[in-house]
């Protein structure tokens, strides 16, 4: 009788072990499928980012702009923003991109066929480039003034001079004569194809722009403006 009971007990437990084995197998299959889904999702995201770049979602913005020099002459320059990925979350930055470099291309000497180009070189801690504020001629040489953030509350102005075929940074004194910005302050992904002086004047007078970028000087370092 004991033998028969043992046989009956073994027969009853056998299906249970089979069910456990099947469940373990199903769990492994589920985990494998989940891993495949995650990998596929990551691949899809990577391909989407590549496609966005390829389609020009992060492409540069280009426009032509009238610039009035300090001697009264008006020239037309070509400006460009090179963008890269980054710049915050989707909620605050739908393009998921930010400026990487600013460029200004113009004829020099003025009214000649020869063109030169200035490119931003300095970046702040947040990986944002210095912003060009003034393009002018000084003693016949092209100059560019920029502003760069050095902390949460402070910025510094920089000056570049085109000399002997290259752009050279010229150290600014701590105090110098204040000058009004003569470059278009709006720098976004939806730039107009052409900016005239009147459009620039109206845009640059907007109260939304801080005073430190509406002018250059009289202090090399500005904080809280």
Output the keywords.
single chain, 225 residues, alpha+beta, 5-stranded mixed beta sheet, 5-stranded antiparallel beta sheet, elongated, disordered N terminus
Count of DSSP strands: 12
Beta strand %: 25-35%
Total of DSSP H or I helical runs spanning 4+ residues:
3
The first-to-last residue Cα distance is 98 Å
- Any idea what the shape is? elongated
Mean pLDDT: 83
Give the structural class: alpha+beta
Number of domains: 2
Q: Report the biggest beta sheet as strand number plus sense, adding barrel if it closes.
A: 5 strands, mixed
Give, in spatial order, the strands making up the sheet with the most strands: 4-3-2-1-10
| Unreliably modeled segments | 1-9, 48-57, 89-93
Q: Helix share of residues?
A: 25-40%
Q: Compute the gyration radius: what is it?
A: 31 Å
**N-to-C SSE series?**
HEEEEEEEEEEHHEE
Write a structural description.
- With 225 residues, this protein is of the alpha+beta class.
- It has two domains: 55 residues; 163 residues, no CATH class.
- Helices cover 29% and strands 34% of the residues.
- It contains three helices and twelve strands; from the N terminus they run H-E-E-E-E-E-E-E-E-E-E-H-H-E-E.
- The strands form three sheets. Strands 4-3-2-1-10 form a five-stranded mixed sheet.
- Strand 5 and strand 6 form a beta hairpin.
